[in-house]
Amino acid sequence: MAQPKSYITSDELKKHTKPGDLWISIQGKVYDVSEWAKDHPGGDLPLLNLAGQDVTDAFVAYHPGTAWQYLDKFFNGYHLQDYTVSEVSQDYRKLLFQFTKMGLFEKKGHVIFMTMCAIVMLLAVSLYGVLCCDSTWVHLASGGLMGLLWIQSGWIGHDSGHYQIMMTRGFTRFAQVLSGNCLAGISIAWWKRNHNAHHIACNSLEFDPDLQHMPFFVVSSKFFNSLTSFYYERKLNFDSVTRFLVSYQHWTFYPVMCVARINLFAQSFILLLTKKNVPNRVQEMLGILVFWTWYPLLVSCLPNWGERIMFVLLSFSVTGMQHVQFCLNHFSSSVYVGNPRGNDWFQKQTRGTLNITCSEWMDWFHGGLQFQVEHHLFPRLPRCHLRTVSPFVVELCKKHGLPYDSASFWKANELTVKTLRNAALQARDLTSPIPKNLVWEAVNTQG
């Protein structure tokens, strides 16, 4: 005879949200993932940020069907008494199942192979230009090509963080470390931790690290209240220096993007040197060491300091285009304060995301980010299928009255700068100003 089911309410589930006491619900069954958090392939942040609620939509978005077989060992015997599924979630899950039946998650196409070929070609030409040519113009062009190489390696790192891009996990890991750590100097462990947090908490001012760029940028006046970053585990103080920098952020945005790679280098080092749980830490550090060996050596082969500085600036500036692209998809979209919720997954992903309208022949340039809405809803979907599924997503958004925002590349830049400008003007006009520093006083003195 079957044992009667034991139930708990959503309010009781919400009590289990602390490290060491993490419960989640998937399709109404409650799982204790407290111990699993440290071994979770996606990191501990998704579980910490979504604990205490039903996370079915996020689970099916991020996990293949084979993951279901491992859930039973975490089942704690409880079912969610007031478990319900909204009509939006029902349609979303049906659509995901439809794509699964079509085999779209398994058919990866030739995009990764072509990207890797492009990386090899760009690296070879850049090395040849520096080591075998005497022309200053060739040396500068080689710096630009190095920047293009880093962009393509970024797409490899991005895709491999979401799904298995090679035949085996081992080869995928090799591709990650080679293209990310060794060739670009960016820790793939940092990238996965940061990017998973972004996807789970899309456009949450407190939980999404992709919106937390103080003291240089804020996308909302809500940051003026010195919000707490649950990613960086510290308060984001809106002090006088931050106000000064933010007040001119619509002018400094593109110049800062030209050197934004420095922040990625720094964040990689910070994570690898902390006590946080980092899988394959030694492997990650060795990969970074490879980059900081070959890249400075290559720069040192240039004939003078002028060319060396220009080479570095050009490689950083060209890569800055990718940093701009990341910002375009979210800076001008809807934001919110608070933790992400599992019961409005589809709504939060669509409202916090902007697509970039472009022709098919420009897909290589955007690396899949032009279909950011589709990517956020189906993160495991290879980018070669994003254009295919787009009409289905548009139809679902229309059915439920949800936004499906899209703009041209130039319009998206305009919207982003407008968002930054609005926040900058608000920073200047606060009615209760914080103590200003001397630079602020000098620049803003009237008369």
Short descriptors:
two-stranded antiparallel sheet; 7% strand; globular; 447 residues; 54% helix; 9 strands; Flavocytochrome B2, Chain A, domain 1; alpha/beta
Can you describe this structure in just a few lines?
This protein is an alpha/beta fold and 447 residues long. The chain contains 19 helices and 9 strands. It has helices spanning 10-13, 45-50, 56-62, 87-101, 111-132, 136-160, 169-184, 188-200, 240-246, 249-258, 261-273, 281-300, 305-328, 345-351, 363-366, 372-377, 386-399, 409-428, 438-444; strands at 6-8, 17-18, 21-26, 29-32, 75-80, 228-229, 234-235, 355-357, 406-408.
Structure description:
- This protein is of the alpha/beta class and 447 residues long.
- Among the domains are: 79 residues, Roll (Flavocytochrome B2, Chain A, domain 1), CATH 3.10.120; 176 residues, no CATH class.
- The protein is globular, with a radius of gyration of 23 Å.
- The strands form three sheets. A five-stranded mixed sheet has the order 1-5-4-3-2. Strands 6-7 form a two-stranded antiparallel sheet. A two-stranded parallel ribbon has the order 8-9.
- The longest helix has 25 residues.
- The C terminus is likely disordered.
- The termini are far apart.
- Helix 6 packs antiparallel against helix 7, helix 6 packs parallel to helix 13 and helix 8 crosses helix 11.
- It contains 19 helices and nine strands.
- Belongs to the fatty acid desaturase type 1 family.
- One of its GO terms (biological process) is lipid metabolic process.
- It comes from Escallonia herrerae.
